[in-house]
UniProtKB/TrEMBL annotation:
<keyword id="KW-0411">Iron-sulfur</keyword>
<feature type="domain" description="NADH-ubiquinone oxidoreductase 51kDa subunit iron-sulphur binding">
    <location>
        <begin position="302"/>
        <end position="385"/>
    </location>
</feature>
<feature type="domain" description="NADH-ubiquinone oxidoreductase 51kDa subunit FMN-binding">
    <location>
        <begin position="41"/>
        <end position="197"/>
    </location>
</feature>
<protein>
    <submittedName>
        <fullName>Fe-S-binding domain-containing protein</fullName>
    </submittedName>
</protein>
<dbReference type="InterPro" id="IPR011538">
    <property type="entry name" value="Nuo51_FMN-bd"/>
</dbReference>
<dbReference type="InterPro" id="IPR019575">
    <property type="entry name" value="Nuop51_4Fe4S-bd"/>
</dbReference>
<keyword id="KW-0408">Iron</keyword>
<dbReference type="Pfam" id="PF01512">
    <property type="entry name" value="Complex1_51K"/>
</dbReference>
<dbReference type="InterPro" id="IPR037225">
    <property type="entry name" value="Nuo51_FMN-bd_sf"/>
</dbReference>
<comment type="similarity">
    <text>Belongs to the complex I 51 kDa subunit family.</text>
</comment>
<keyword id="KW-0004">4Fe-4S</keyword>
<keyword id="KW-0479">Metal-binding</keyword>
<dbReference type="InterPro" id="IPR037207">
    <property type="entry name" value="Nuop51_4Fe4S-bd_sf"/>
</dbReference>
<dbReference type="Pfam" id="PF10589">
    <property type="entry name" value="NADH_4Fe-4S"/>
</dbReference>
Length: 410
């Protein structure tokens, strides 16, 4: 498909003049609230930050809650998932597309103030340069926060922009009810806003190309890659394109740590779409993919490392979350080292049932989904680890590849 994001020079920052030359800002903020909402509903645009919540519904909630206070609009570019870098790409190289989407949505809800929130200094520099390149109808501020896993959770974003720490808060209230400084606030991922800009472009309706999404792709061996893919692409297609003839994969961790883990077999043709089929225990999430290399990696080690990361990087505010994630991570590590008891499968089943919902940052939900995936799709692999220590796990630890799993630089 023709890329609407990468253009002819994917690694050159697009400035205001270049963006205008290809039709940018030609309709922002010309769409009325009703017109924009209709466009978003017709496209069924879902949030690209992980939850895939309908964008039109988010805007409608703020419109309903706003009077008498004027709302605030926030572009969320925190991007805390270790394997995701699509948002940083947009902010660094396509900042005006993000800002056009922001201005369109701000106009639709009659916001009088907007923020772009990021944990990446290069992104902040690019966005501030973009703001200097043209005048905007409302004040737009770029705010940076410490790069932590939970900094992008929307109540953490609101907390930071209101002068607090970038940590999640109890819900309710939700941001649309009481957000930045108590005002109704809509928080939209920067990729979502870039999609809005594409949808309101004058030629969008005539383009005829299927809906697309940006995907961050990485493995323990090889260079990370960024794709623009049509919805419905199969995970096997993506794996073949990413690996070429050089590698094969046994599994993929989907959508960041909240999307679950899927075995890669010829029969498993999982379609990548933001609304998963009924009964699915995986999700596209933020569209990041970690492929588990068949020769150099192990699905159990990947799950153990993900759980350990979540245990280290949760908000440390809720006791059940802190204790639950740490216990699950320790049990998964024992499976890697060949020291787990047969009863671990019963433990996994129990934790997968009781962990969801145990915390403000939803980290336990991600751990629970990983455990469910291991018990169902990877039961034979778990049994092999119970029978004795996995040689790939031994090599992963000895070589240092486990320690470097999350050392993604972009």
């Amino acid at each position: 498909m023709t890329s609407s994001i990468f253009l002819d020079a994917p690694w050159e920052r697009e400035d205001n003049n270049a963006y205008i030359a290809r039709g940018g800002y030609s309709c922002a903020p010309a769409h009325s609230s009703g017109e924009l909402l209709a466009v978003l509903r017709d496209a069924d645009l879902r949030g690209r930050g992980g939850a895939a919540f309908p964008t039109a519904t988010k805007l409608e909630a703020v419109l309903a809650a706003a009077p008498p206070a004027r709302p605030v609009l926030v572009a969320n570019g925190a991007e805390g998932e270790p394997f995701s870098f699509k948002d940083r790409y947009l902010m660094r190289y396509r900042p005006h597309r993000v800002l056009e989407g922001l201005i369109c949505c701000a106009a639709a809800v009659a916001a009088d103030q907007a923020f772009v929130y990021t944990c990446d200094d290069r992104s902040a520099e690019s966005l501030r340069a973009a703001l200097r390149e043209r005048d905007y109808p409302i004040p737009v501020s770029v705010v940076t926060s410490e790069h932590t896993y939970v900094a992008g959770e929307e109540t953490a974003v609101v907390n930071r922009l209101s002068g607090g720490l970038g940590l999640p808060t109890d819900k309710p209230p939700r941001p649309f009810e009481s957000g930045v400084h108590g005002r109704p606030t809509v928080v939209l991922n920067v990729d979502t806003l870039a999609q809005v800009a594409g949808l309101v472009h004058p030629t969008a309706a005539e383009d005829g190309t299927p809906a697309s999404f940006l995907a961050s792709v990485v493995s323990i061996a090889g260079e990370p890659a960024l794709y623009e893919l049509p919805e419905g692409t199969s995970v096997r297609e993506l794996a073949r394109d990413f690996a070429g003839q050089e590698a094969t994969f046994s599994a993929v961790v989907m959508g960041g740590f909240f999307g679950g883990m899927v075995p890669l077999t010829d029969e498993n043709q999982v379609a990548l779409q933001f609304v998963p089929p009924p009964g699915s225990d995986t999700a596209l999430g933020c569209a990041s993919f970690f492929f588990v290399d068949e020769a150099q990696d192990c699905p159990v080690a990947a799950a153990a490392d993900a759980a350990a990361y979540l245990s280290r990087h949760n908000a440390r505010q809720c006791g059940p979350c802190v204790r639950g994630t740490a216990t699950a991570a320790k049990a998964l590590e024992s499976l890697c080292t060949g020291k787990a008891a047969e009863s671990i499968r019963d433990d996994f089943a129990r934790w997968a049932e009781i962990l969801p919902g145990r915390g403000a940052c939803a980290v336990p939900d991600g751990v629970a989904r990983l455990l469910r995936c291991l018990m169902t799709a990877f039961a034979p692999v778990v049994q092999t680890h119970l029978a004795g220590r996995c040689e790939r796990c031994v090599d992963l630890t000895a070589s240092g590849r486990r320690r470097s799993r999350f050392a993604l630089t972009f």
